[in-house]
Amino acid sequence: AKIKEVEFVKSSNKPKDCPKDERPEFAMLGRSNVGKSSLIISLVKKKEVVLTSKKPGKTQLINHFLVNKSWYIVDLPGYGFANASEAARMDWSSFTKGYFLNRDTLVSIPITFVFTKCDKMEGRQKGPTSHELIRENYKHQPPWIMTSSVSGLGRDELLLHMSQLQNY
Ligand code: GTP
Ligand code: MG
């Protein structure tokens, strides 16, 4: 699960414009501002090519990054953020939906829950810690991984997981 090379390929605003390719790809799907773009940076260690922001709604296109010339990681706009016009939001939701429905090379099943910003969950209160609660509540769910783009928590685990999924 070693990252040797990362190349920004292109930004697209519809599935039709995405790279025509057979290589498998992984997409980060989640609410706006949860840290999808930051997580991609932490995985590929290439700050220059991925845009992040304190404000929700930074990623506005389907962004393809080719890793080790063998698989893609895709940064998508988040859903549910309030900072854009209704029209812009409709547009994003329609093309990300189109992306999910039409992108044949997407490694979409199985889905993995990736918890972000886990550096922020410190056990202030008595009783079970947030880590323990997640462990308990997601016992029977699809695979899940706790990550932090700040501390690097979960990075190796997520990369290993993605490399295993490609052999399906
Ligand atoms: P959209 O592109 O709007 O969908 O957002 P996004 O999910 O790509 O979030 P982004 O990576 O731009 O990060 C949003 C904010 O959260 C930024 O201010 C990041 O610095 C911060 N952030 C991201 N990951 C972490 C993390 O692991 N820990 C902490 N503490 N902050 C983080
Ligand atoms: Mg983003």
Summarize the structure.
It comes from Anisodus tanguticus. 27% of the residues lie in helices and 17% in strands.
Task: Explain what the structure shows.
The longest helix has 17 residues, at 86-102. The model has no long low-confidence stretch (mean pLDDT 84). 27% of the residues lie in helices and 17% in strands. It contains four helices and six strands; from the N terminus they run ββαββαβαβα. It has a four-stranded mixed sheet with strand order 1-3-4-2, covered by helices on one side. The chain has a two-stranded parallel sheet with strand order 5-6. By secondary structure, it is an alpha/beta fold. Magnesium ion binds at residues 36-37, 58-59, 75.
Low-confidence stretches: none
Number of discrete helical segments: 4
Which secondary-structure class do the elements indicate?
A: alpha/beta
Distance between the termini: 15 Å
Secondary-structure element pattern, one letter each? EEHEEHEHEH
- Radius of gyration, in angstroms, nearest whole number: 16 Å
Helix share bin: 25-40%
The total strand number stands at: 6
List the helices and strands and how they pair.
Elements lengths: L5 E7 L12 E4 L7 H9 L17 E6 L3 E5 L10 H17 L10 E3 L14 H8 L6 E3 L8 H11 L3
Parallel strand pairs: 2-4, 5-6
Antiparallel strand pairs: 1-3, 3-4
The site of guanosine-5'-triphosphate (GTP) has 25 residues, from helix 1.
Protein name: EngB-type G domain-containing protein
Keywords: GTP-binding, Magnesium, Metal-binding, Nucleotide-binding
Family: Belongs to the TRAFAC class TrmE-Era-EngA-EngB-Septin-like GTPase superfamily. EngB GTPase family.
